[in-house]
Amino acid sequence: MSDYQPSDIRVSDAEREEALAKLGEHMSAGRLDIDEYGERSAEVATAKTRGQLLGLFGDLPEPKPAFGRPKGAVAPRQRGFAEKVAPVAIPVAAILAVGVVLVVLKIGFFLPVLFFFLFVNGRWHGQDRRRDQRRWMRHERGY
């Protein structure tokens, strides 16, 4: 009994149709001209394995056929540095700005920051408590 590689798995008609649709997207984007699209479409129609289909997309960026992914699923996207830092940087910058203003006005820095964190903490836990109460009420009612 020989081991099959993922590229040796035979393709279905639905996978061929998906590959044709992806080639159409590349032609619409201008990556393929009509002749290349025709040649690759003919090869899609005669492809027997996933490896043969994926070979047709070797020189093309996404979208590519997504074997085994649920319909509508999108390939995971790498988050950039700004997307990772922005959710933290904006609140920190706001706190620092408030702190600088308060120090300049000689009101002090610690007390307003303490109240800010208590407020945020109370809001988060208050929302959790309300959500838990709603879940408990749905559970009690049987739905």
- SS summary, helix count: 5
Low-confidence stretches: none
Radius of gyration: 28 Å
Please provide the count of β strands: 0
Structural class: mainly alpha
Largest sheet: none
Write down the secondary-structure element order. Answer: HHHHH
Helix content: 55-70%
Average pLDDT works out at 76
What share of residues are in beta strands?
A: under 5%
Q: First CA to last CA: what distance?
A: 51 Å
What would the principal axes of the Cα set say about the shape? elongated
Could you explain the architecture of this structure?
It is built from five helices and no strands. 9% of the residues are buried. α1 runs antiparallel to α2. With 143 residues, it is an all-alpha fold. The chain is elongated, with a radius of gyration of 28 Å. The model has no long low-confidence stretch (mean pLDDT 76).
Topology overview:
Layout lengths: L12 H16 L5 H13 L3 H6 L25 H24 L5 H32 L2
Helix pairs in contact: 1-2
Question: Keywords for this structure?
Answer:
143 residues, mainly alpha, 64% helix, 0% strand
Brief description of this entry?
With 143 residues, the chain is mainly α. It is built from 5 helices and no strands.
